[in-house]
Amino acid sequence: DGGITQSPKYLFRKEGQNVTLSCEQNLNHDAMYWYRQDPGQGLRLIYYSQIVNDFQKGDIAEGYSVSREKKESFPLTVTSAQKNPTAFYLCASQLRGANVLTFGAGSRLTVL
Amino acid sequence: QQPVQSPQAVILREGEDAVINCSSSKALYSVHWYRQKHGEAPVFLMILLKGGEQKGHDKISASFNEKKQQSSLYLTASQLSYSGTYFCGTENFGNEKLTFGTGTRLTIIP
């Protein structure tokens, strides 16, 4: 079955450590997105990529980095510069020309 | 800029109706609606592309008022399965990014 796989589902890290969240899709979608979800704040866009080797900052990119070396993969690194990294992170993908976003099941990051 | 959703939360008895509103401070190109059940990924419900467009399936429908820069989601004769958090996502002219609202938590009780 086609879909988006995010891993790990739960992650605990100490303050000051970088963390990389994985997002893989086998839908052959062109665009991929990372959103952060906090209670009462909805989904906020961190980074997005419409083609391989290209990506753009979203609304809250500070303290995060991404890469898009392969069409199916869009990993997100939460760096130590992110002041409040504890959150639920959602990855999504979209076929070019289509309007629908397909989301992964999310990764919950807790920084202790 | 994030669209504003109202209400933030609503509790209904099974069979009652609900309306969720989504407003933007900028001219809208499109409005998307998603539902997220607790602990799950958001799932696409529908998209409205033209001002005045109305769409729906089953007993969930939506309207798009381009002049007022807002959209409303209508849930008729609500079922237990409608429970979840509803998000609107908006696209503005000249901006390809989808910006989501803060969400409306809907709880349906028997």
Q: Characteristics of this structure?
A:
heterodimer, A: 112 residues, mainly beta, seven-stranded mixed sheet, four-stranded antiparallel sheet, 11 strands, 52% strand, globular, B: 110 residues, Immunoglobulin-like, six-stranded mixed sheet, five-stranded antiparallel sheet
Please describe what this structure looks like:
The complex is a heterodimer of chains A (112) and B (110). Chain A is mainly β and 112 residues long. Chain A is built from no helices and eleven strands. In chain A, the strands form two sheets. In chain A, strands 2, 4, 5, 6, 9, 10 and 11 form a seven-stranded mixed beta sheet that branches. Chain A is globular and about 40 Å long. Chain A starts with a strand and ends with a strand. With 110 residues, chain B is mostly beta strands. Chain B has one domain: Immunoglobulin-like, CATH 2.60.40. Classes of the chains: A mainly beta (112), B mainly beta (110). At the A-B interface, β5 and β10 of A face β4, β5 and β10 of B.
Overview in brief:
With 112 residues, chain A is mainly beta.
What are the segments of chain B in which pLDDT stays under 50 over at least 5 consecutive residues? none
- The number of helical elements of chain B comes to 0
Question: How many structural units, i.e. domains of chain B?
Answer: 1
**Helix fraction of chain B by DSSP (H/I, runs of at least 4):** under 10%
Give the strand content of chain B: over 45%
Q: What would the principal axes of the Cα set say about the shape of chain B? A: globular
CATH superfamily of chain B: Immunoglobulins
Order of helices and strands of chain A: EEEEEEEEEEE
**Strand percentage of chain A, roughly?**
over 45%
